[in-house]
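Anyone opening a protein record will find just a pair of labelled lines. A complete record is shown below as an example:
=====
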Amino acid sequence: MKRVFLGAVAAALLSLGLAAPLHAADTIKIGIAGAHSGDLASYGVPSLNAAKVVVAKANAQGGVLGKQIELVIGDDQCKPELATNVATKLISDKVAVVMGHICSGPAKASLPLYNDAHIVAMSPSATTPGLSAGGVNPMFFRTIAKDDDQAKLTSRFMLEKLKVKKVAYVHDNGDYGKGFCDNNRTLMEAGGAKTVLFEAITPDAVDFSPIVRKLRHAKADIIVFGGYQPTASKLLQQMRRARVNTVVIGPDGLKDDAFIKMAGEAAEGVYCSYPKDTASLPIYKEARQGHIDMFNAEPGSFYYNAYSAMLALINAIKEAGSTETAKIVEALHTKKVSTPLGDLVFNKSGDAAGLALSVYQIKGGKFVETDYSVTLD
């Protein structure tokens, strides 16, 4: 059976890249937008890989609505100014739906364009709550928990498990990083914890000694970090060299093997939130094996979120019986789909219901799931 699957994947790959181009009318186009190069490529490339694996399998099984699926790929490097250019091109290329964008800033910048064009955009990793609040972005969906949902988990963990009383917050001043800190601060202060520091840092800075000094003097029980792993790894290394050994907790952007590689021993003990381990599900195992077969490597961060997003989008097109956006939106809201993250359907705001989150800790150079988790409504 494995040989048959590999053969099908190979044939599908030919249809994606090596065969003669198909006319637009012969395919259903799905846009893939994210950081495929640059500092945050470790987030975007796994999502692009997920799209390739899912589409290869779907095309090998006949595609959807009797047509092959064609990927239209746009690299925004997780930069808002590039994201609008990518969105404009995907719209002009007449994609049916978009899987992306990866980062919250680019998602925020590009969503007005997708709303105006009436094209669904589903992100596997953009977590800013405002993206789906109040119906402002009716075309937006996601297969990742919002910052405030993550904060509910991490704040409860800090208050109940770690018995935290004093908290320092360090963020990169972006939609994603500051949002995570803001939401945790609100809940932690409501729970009786005192804020002893709330500071922004410049992500591409080389010297973090000023903030390290402030963290030493703050004498916090824990540091809540808001931002992406390249910044976190630099900050942690400088903290540990200065013997600031305060426990650190962060959002899902820290659960990346690249973080452990970059931070080294400084990453040991760090906590973060991330989707609950669903590795026992057959569809999870299938998704993992698909990546290994195609890329000869284990999947990276947000791969399973992106794989789930692709399954949800393709299933919605199938259930809609067309690429008409209104019907796709209705299917996303009403038709449950089996994914590596569990069975998902999307609430009226476009957020995934049924997604479970856990707190993880780095132990012995690996992410280990703790017993703290929540399931989203």
Remarks:
- The longest strand covers residues 366-375.
- The radius of gyration is 21 Å.
- The chain has twelve helices and 15 strands.
